[in-house]
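Morning. Coffee machine broken again, so started the prediction first thing and wrote up yesterday's gels while waiting. Chain of 1523 residues, entered below exactly as on the submission form.
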Amino acid sequence: MNGTHFQRRVVGLGLAPVHTKCRLAIVHRPWARQPYGSIPRKNEGFRSGRPSMAALKASSSEVETRTEQFVKDLEEMEGGQDVESMRSSLLALQDEAGGLGKEIDDAYRKMFSGRSVSVEAESGGADDGSKSDEIVQLNDVDEAAFSELGKESPKVLMQILQDISKNQPNEWQEFQARIQQLKLKRNRVDRKIEDMESALASAERESAMKSLILEDEGDVYDESSIKPISGTMNIVMVTGFESFNSGLYMKAAQRVSKRFPNVSISVFDDRAIKGNPEKLGKAIDSADVVFSSLIVDYDDALWLRERIEKVPLRFIFESALELMSMTKIGSFQMASGKKAEAPPIVKKVLGLFGSGREEDRLLGYLSFLKIGPKLLKFIPGDRARDIKNWLTVYSYWNQGGLENVKNMFLYIVDQYLGPTGLPETGVVETPQTGCLHPDYDGYFASPAEYLKWYEANGPVKTRNAPTVGVMVYRKHVITGAEYVRQLITLIEEGGLRPVPIFINGVEAHTIVRDQMTTEHEQKLVKAGKGDNPTLQKDAIMVDAIVNTIGFPLVGGPAGSVEAGRQTDISKAILKTKNVPYIIASPLLVQNLESWMKDGITGLQSVVLYSLPELDGAIDTVPLGGLVGDNIFLIPERVKKMSARLKNWINLRKKPPSERKIAILLYGFPPGVGATGTAALLNVPKSLTYVLKALKKEGYDLGDMPDDFDGEALIEALKAQEGQRTVFKGKDGIHTAGSGSAEQYGVQAAAAEVAPRELKEMLTYPEEWGPWEWGPIPFLPENDILVQRVEKQWGKLERYRGLSTTAKGNYLIGGLQLGNAWIGVQPLLGVEGDPMRLLFERDLTPHPQYAAFYKWLEAEYQADAVLHFGMHGTVEWLPGSPLGNTGFSWSDVLLGNMPNVYVYACNNPSESIIAKRRGYGTIVSHNVPPYGRAGLYKQLSEVRGLVSEYREQPAPEMKTSIVQALDTAGLQEDCPFQPGKNGAPDKTIDPENAGEISDDEFMEYMGRINQYLQVLENRLFSEGLHVLGAPPSQDQLAQYLGAYFGDDIPEEIVEKISSLPQGLPSSSIKSTLGLNGNAETLMPRIEEAIEIRDLLSRNSEEIDAIVQALNGEYLEAAPGGDLLRDGAGVLPTGKNIHALDPYRMPGLAAVARGSKVAEAIIEKHLADNDGVYPETLAVNLWGLDAIKTKGESVAIVLHMVGAKPVQEGTGRIARFELLPLEELGGRPRIDVLCNLSGIFRDSFQNVVELLDDLFQRAADADEDPALNYIRKHALEMKGTGLENSTARLFSNPAGDYGSMVNERVGASDWENSAELGTTWASRNSFSYGRGEKGTARPEVLQALLKTTDRIVQEIDSVEYGLTDIQEYYANTGALKQAAETARDGKRVGASIVETFSKSVKPTELDDVLRMEYRTKLLNPKWAQAMSDQGSGGAYEISTRMTAMVGWGATTGFTDDWAWDQAADTYALDPEMAKKLRDANPQAFKNTVRRMLEAAGRGFWKTDSETITKLQTVYGDIEDELEGV
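Came back before lunch.
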C-alpha cells in the first residue's frame, strides 16, 4: 500500500467529523512478540535484538506489505452474523446521513440560489482610492457552496446575510431553526456511524487476530512426581486495571488446567461486569474459588459482592473495601462488616514494620507481606495456616509474572483441593523497587548504582544532558510490558538521561524524598535548612521528576482512597526538590480509540489529572493507551513530553539575561477597548510590577527606566490594530512605532509569516509514519493540520482574513523590550464571522492565529510564554476535551514552550482548562477589595423621606414619597402589596397615593426601608487588582469587614488592619481595647489577624512568576473564594487546582443545597397556586460547583429525591433514590441539567452518576403523577424518541459556550427568539454513561416545553449577573429558549447567591435591579472602576453590553437603569472625558450600547437625550478615525 491512499472518516479528537487522506495505521509491530532483550537501540542495528528507528523506517515497505495482507485477510474473512448485521446497520446509517445531507442542501438552495447582491468593489488599485459597486449573482448554492463562499468571498456572504435578515426576517429565522435541527440530526447519525465503524473494526480485528494466537507449549514436569487429585476445582479470576495482562493470566490458567484437567480457571477483567455479566455470573455460580484484585468501581464491587457470597474461598486484594471485606480463606476472614480490616494477629505483626512516619505506613505493609508468611508458619493452628496462605497467595500475586501467577493457582489447588505432588516452588521475587534499562540484563538496586553503570554504558553521553527521574509501574516491568523500555529509549532520543525506577506506587514519595536530590536541596542542606533525615547519601541529582503512574505522590493508588489527605507532605517534598514534577502515562483503564474520540474520561481523568494536580504536577501528557488488551505508546506524545520537559529544565539552566520571554496580553472582543485588559486585573500596572521584578532578576529588558508606564505600552499596542497598519504589514507596524512608550526603551517589533512558511510550521516531519503515531485509529498525512486549516478557511495562499497583509502574509505585531517580547493574543475570528454564526464549528483557529504561536516558538524562539491574566483563548481551541493529542490545537500551537499563566485565585474552574489543555503553570492572584454599596442620589433621598414618615407619619408626605420612588424606579424592585384577599401587587401613582390607608402605607414604608438596608449593605468588588501590590490599611479593613460581617465590630476591624505583626495575645487585647466580650471575640480576632497577614503577602504573586520562569516547582493550593474559604485560598501566588471530583457533593453542600432546593419549591408553590413545577432547568457550572463543593448538584438531587452514597473509602459512588414516602408527599421533580463545558469535562464521574440516577428514576415502579421524570420519559418514549432519560445537555464535545454573547456582542440578531434558538442548537448534546455528546434536540425541546423554572447559582461577589456575558448568554438565553418552546408562557428564574449565608432564592429581575443599583449605577463603584485607567473603562463597557444582553434574552427594560447609566457615564462631562481619555474604544462601545438599547425598544427616553448621545458617539468615532 506504499503510496496508496483511501478515504476514511477521521474519528474523534474532539472535532466534528472530517474526511481526509489517511494511510492505514499499523497496530502489529514486527518485534511485538519479542522479549525486551531482543529490541535493538537506534543506530546499533540489531545489537541486543532491538530494531533501531532507522531500521524500522527502512523496513516500511515490509510493514506496509504486511498491512496489505492484513486488509486482504479481513476482506476474505467469512464474518459471523453479528459482523454482517453491523455492516448492514452501517450502510443504513450512511444512507440516513446522505438523506439528511440532501435535505440540508435543498434548504440552502431554497434560501440562497438565484439571489443577487450589490457589494462595494475596489477600483483595481486606482490612485484616487475610488470604489464602485458590483452585482454578484448566486447560482446553485448547496451547503458546500455556501461554505466555500464564506471562505472565498466573506464580504459577499456577509452582505447577503444582512439583506436577508433585514428584508425577510421570518424566513431567515425559519431557515436557521430548520438548518440547526437538520445538522443536529446529522451530527447524531454521524456519531452513530463513528461508533458503528469502531465496533465493526474491533469485531473484525478480534476475528482476524484469532489466527495469530500461538499455541502455548506449557511446562515440563517429572510425571512420576505428580499425584492424581480427586474432585474438581473451579477458579474464577476477575481483575481490574489489568486488561493488558489478560493474555498472561490466560496462559497461566491454561498451563495449570492442561496439567490438571479437573481444575478449571476462568479469567475475566472488570469490563465483563458490565459488558458480559451473564457469562461472568454463570462462572461465579459454579466457582469454588474467586480471586479478585483492583476492583475499585463501587457498582462493580457491589455486583461482585452479591454474587460471590456463597463461594467457599475468596481471595480479594487491593479493591474497594466493600469487596475486600468478603475475603474468606478457611477460618480466616476479613471484618464481617463493610469495612475491611486486617485480623488482630496481622495488625500485631504489621506494627513491627515501617519507618514510623505516617506517610510511610503502606511501605510497612508491603514489607510485612513479604516476610509475613515466614513468620506465621511458626504459629500453630489452622487459622494461622489460612492467614499464611492468604499472605502467600498475595506474595505470588504481588510479584507477578507468568511463573508466579501459574504457581499461585497451583498453590491454591495444593492447599485447598489436594496435594499436587509438584515440587514446591517459591515466589520468583523481583525487587520492590529498582532501576532498569533496555541495554542491561537485570535490575539495578538503586538509582546511584544505575547511574554508575549509565555513565560508562548509557546511550546519552552528553555531560550536561538533563537527568530525569522516571517512576514506572513495577507490575508492568515484571509482566514484560513492552512500552516501558520503549519509553526509556524515546526519552533518551529526546536528549534526556532517564533514571527509570520501578515502584508499586505506594513508595513514590520515598523514592523522590530519599533517593533523588537536587541542586536546590543541596543548597538547603549546606545552609543547615534541610530537614530530611532519610535522604540517602548516594541520592542522585535530578533536574526533573516524571511520574508515569499518576495518582497522588504519597500513597499512589492506595493514597487515592483519601485524596488530598497527604498533599501537604507531597508538596513539602516537591518544594524541597524544587524541580518540575510531571505526570506522563499511558492510559490503563481507557482504550486509545475512546481517548482519540471523546477525550480522557472517568476514573482515568482523576488518576492523571485531578489527583496529581493536588500535589502540584504540571504539563500532564497522556503517552498512549490500551488497544485491545495491550498497552501501546504513541511515540509522538513521548516526544512532546520530552521536549516540553527539556525546555522547562533549560529555563533553570539558562541565565536570566539570556532568556527570551513572550508576554501575551488580550484584546478580545475587538473594537471595544479590550486590548491590555484581563478580568479583575489592572494589566498596565501589573505589567509594570512584573517587568521591574524581571529586570531586578537580571533579565535583559533593554533601557527600561524605573518610571516605566504600562499604560503607554498598551497604547502602543492599540496603535498596531488599525486595518491600514495591518494592510501594510511589518512596515506599517514600524511606521506606527511605539508612541510614548519609546521613552521607556520600547520598540515596535513585527514579522510576517508567508503561507508557505506556515505550511512548513504546521507540517509534521516528512519521515514520520506508523512508528511515530502508534496504533491510533488512523494514520494522518504529515500535512493533516494544513489540510484542516484550509478546509475551514480556504487555501492559505488566497486567505485574506484577520491580520493578513496586502501580500497575503500573516502579520505578527508586538513590542520589544530587550529580551521581552510583548504582544496581543490574536482574535479568534468569531465576531462578524458568518461561518461561525451560521452554526459551523470552528474546526481550527484562523491562519494568522496559528502563525502567531508557531512564530513565537520557531522564529522568535521564546524560552517561555507568560499569559497575562484571565483569560486567553489558546486553551479553548478545538481538540480533545481532556488529554491533548497531536491534533489538539492548543497542543499544536503552544508546542514545546513552557507556559506560565496568571489567573485569579477565585476561578479554579477555568484555570484548570488553562492547566490541562493549555499546559499552564498557574500563578494565582488576589481579587480586588470589597466595598459596601451604601446609598446615593435618589436612594439616599428616599431613605430620608421614608425615615421621616416612619417617625412622624404625615398624609401629605405620601405624594412626595411616591414621586421619589418613581424617580428612583424603586416600585419595580419593591412593589406595593395591598394585602387584601391576595390582591396582586400594584403600582402607586402620585395622584392616588393619598387613597392608600395609613396602615398599608406604613407597612409599605417598612418594606422599602428593609430593601434599602439590603442595598446599602451589599458588597461589590472595588476596582481591579494589581499584581504583587500589598493592600493598603483601608483595603485590608475592606477585605476583613466583608469576610467577618457583623461577627467583629467595624471599629475593631479597622484597628486589626493597622496592628503590628507578631503581637502577643495580651497586647492584642489591650491595643484593640477589648472589654468583657474579649474571650468570645478572640478566636475570630485571631482568624482576622491570620487573614490580614496572608493578604499582606501579595508580593508573592510576583515571586511566583519569577520562580515559574526559573523552571522551579510552584506550590499547589486550592482555588476559591475569600468570602467562603477565608484563609484557605491565601496567600496567592500559587498553582491553584480544583477539588477531587469523587467527593462532590460534599456534606455541607448537600445540607445547604437541600435547603436551597426546598426554598425554591416553596417559592414556586406560593407563586403558582400550590402547583409543583414539573421540570426545573438547573445550570451546573464548573466554577460554582468547585467553590461550593457541589451545591448545585445537591439541588438536583433534592429535586429528584435522591442522596449521595459513599463507598468505604469516602468516594461518592452512587446517587440513590429516596423512597417516595420520604419526600413528604411531593413528587419527584424532573431536572434539565445544563452543563457548562468545564463541568462536563472536569466532573465526568458526576455526569455519569446523574445520568444513572435519571435512568433509575425513569425506570422506578412509581405513579407517574408522583414521578415527573418517569412521566416525561414515558411521554417521550411514546413519541418514538431515543434515550428519553437524557437530562444532561451541553455544547458539542471539545467545544465551549452558547454563542449567544457573540451574537449580542456583534449586534447580529433580530429578535429574542433567535437567541433562544441559538442557545438550544448549541446545547442539544447529551452526556452520560452511554453518551459523549450525542445530538438530541428533540429530547431537549420536550424538556423545555415542561420547564417551569430556571435555577442559577452565583458563586462570588466579583462575578454577578451584570458583570460577565456568560450569565445572560446561558441563564437568560435558556429562559428565552424555554419560553419559546412553551409558546411564550413565562418561565421563572431563581437566583441563589452562594457567597451569602441566606438560602433564599431571588427572582432574576430582582437580582438584576439590586446589582445595577449597587454596582454599575453606584457612584462608589463607578469611581473605583474609572480610576483603573484603560482596564476600568473596558470593564464599564462590558457591563453595558451585558445590559443589552439581558434586554435581548429576558426582556429587562427598566428605563430608570438606562437613564442613570447614561447620566453617569455618557452625559456627565467629567466622567465622559475620563473614560474617553483612558480608553476611547471602550467609551465608544458604552455609548453605542445606549443607542442600541433605545433603537431596540429596551429604553424609552426623550429625543433630546438621544441627540446628545448621538453627538457624543459621533465625536468619539471621528476621534478614533483621525478626523
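The radius of gyration is 34 Å. Going to sketch it on the whiteboard this afternoon.
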